[in-house]
Amino acid sequence: IVRLEGVEKTYLMDRVKVPALRGINLSIEKGDYVSIMGPSGSGKSTLMNLIGALDRPTKGRVFIEGRDISKLSDNSLARIRREKIGFVFQQFNLIPRLTAIENVELPMWFAGVPKVQRVKRAAELLKLVGLGDRMKHRPTELSGGERQRVCIARALGNDPEIILADEPTGNLDTKSGEGIMRILEELNERGKTIVLVTHEREFGKRANTIIKIRDGRIVG
Amino acid sequence: IVRLEGVEKTYLMDRVKVPALRGINLSIEKGDYVSIMGPSGSGKSTLMNLIGALDRPTKGRVFIEGRDISKLSDNSLARIRREKIGFVFQQFNLIPRLTAIENVELPMWFAGVPKVQRVKRAAELLKLVGLGDRMKHRPTELSGGERQRVCIARALGNDPEIILADEPTGNLDTKSGEGIMRILEELNERGKTIVLVTHEREFGKRANTIIKIRDGRIVG
Ligand SMILES: Nc1ncnc2c1ncn2[C@@H]1O[C@H](COP(=O)(O)OP(=O)(O)OP(=O)(O)O)[C@@H](O)[C@H]1O
Ligand SMILES: Nc1ncnc2c1ncn2[C@@H]1O[C@H](COP(=O)(O)OP(=O)(O)OP(=O)(O)O)[C@@H](O)[C@H]1O
Ligand SMILES: [Mg+2]
Ligand SMILES: [Mg+2]
User: Fold this and answer.
1) Could you tell me which chain A residue has the CA closest to the CA of B39?
2) N-to-C CA span, chain A
């Protein structure tokens, strides 16, 4: 469902180049459950941004459902992301002025879902992640782990085919983290493709396919 | 070194009160190594903010080195924080326009440390946390775990007596997380008081004193 061929990503700073990814060849099957693990700074989030078409590679090609994303217009790319991909970011990025439920509604609003349906779905998703009593809180009125769970709920609103979760349990106690893992496993049983970046080995090894990354390359 | 007596903290929202802490009695000995563990939303960060004098309780009293912080002026409180307390926040809050090294220098600049010394110390601390080659990067040019490590370095600049670390390894792979734990243990061996919030049981149980919190109360 996602394929990367010869992908490189180099960040350019004033006088320095940072080669974050150095030649990635990767094929993710539809319906697979993949975990990506590796040291801090090894390129995991960069890789997730490319898989999720949030960024373009410096070299090489990225295919989503067989389509070369470098050939797509920004509009087509945005539509694929909106309809097909649910992204849980490592650093949250919730909208501070919106409540939890409004933040969860946002991708559905972009996708044209009518108000009544998206409020209902957003409320269900927040209850699913244990935030039924936090719906009206704004991000600054939530704990770290609560914000993380709002992000998880938000990623699921449009029932996406592919869920990309970058450290979704980094701020969660073991029990809440286990709850999130079970949501991901249940989505995978229903045919969704899951790509999970995690530093928790206990969680990472439950995936079907384990990818280890080090210094911008896939190893082992 | 820090004492909380009958401390309560209630957040006020438009029509709702959120009792985040409901009667905390806690005494932290100088030089102790304390870990605080509990479910997401149970009040750990709220408690850390009170211990670190970043917030005032709704009821009860907080004493730092025997001084009731409600009796102190904002200036005196700010001076205690600057000189005595190093805080690693759960959600980072680095200054986006400053580089990593400038972010680490900031508390030292506030404390009046001369330029040459603070640059030297900031560089050493960044090397200590493995970011010697990332000093000129701004926060948006760093990975999640790298930002977290800049925050850890920043907390140590003024050689504080008390280090409050709220989930300092949430974004770090096991090896980097282990590195941070060893820095904290080494600081404790040198007499520093460590208060660590962590959801990683393996790390939490290495503390001298373990505090469990649930629904705003200390339990067990
Ligand atoms: N400004 C606020 N207004 C209203 N409620 C708040 C505010 N800040 C925090 N809360 C609530 O207070 C409770 C405790 O928050 P706190 O951040 O202390 O939890 P925590 O134990 O650190 O959680 P986590 O492990 O998820 O970081 C949470 O349920 C949260 O929703
Ligand atoms: N905009 C940027 N400019 C320059 N360098 C960058 C930029 N973004 C990331 N980097 C660097 O690229 C490398 C890979 O970053 P990435 O965020 O992919 O790592 P990661 O594996 O997700 O790390 P972590 O586990 O800490 O989240 C890091 O060393 C980082 O410093
Ligand atoms: Mg990352
Ligand atoms: Mg917290």
Assistant:
1) A173
2) 23
- Amino acid identity of residue A91, one-letter, is Q
Q: Which residues line ligand 2 (CB under 6 A)?
A: A 11, 13, 18, 20, 38, 40-46, 90; B 134, 137, 140-146, 171
Other C-beta atoms lying within 10 Å of the C-beta of residue A155: 21
Q: pLDDT confidence of A15, banded at 50, 70, 90? A: confident
- What is the β-pairing status of strands A17-28 and B162-166? unpaired
Compute, in angstroms, the gap from residue A94 CA to the centroid of ligand 1. 16
Element (H, E) at A193: strand A193-197
Ligand 2 nearest-atom number relative to CA A167: 27
CA distance B49 to B52: 5
Instruction: Give B151-170 pLDDT, tens digit per residue.
Output: 999 999 999 999 999 999 99
Q: Is the CB of B42 inside a 6 Å radius of any atom of ligand 1?
A: yes
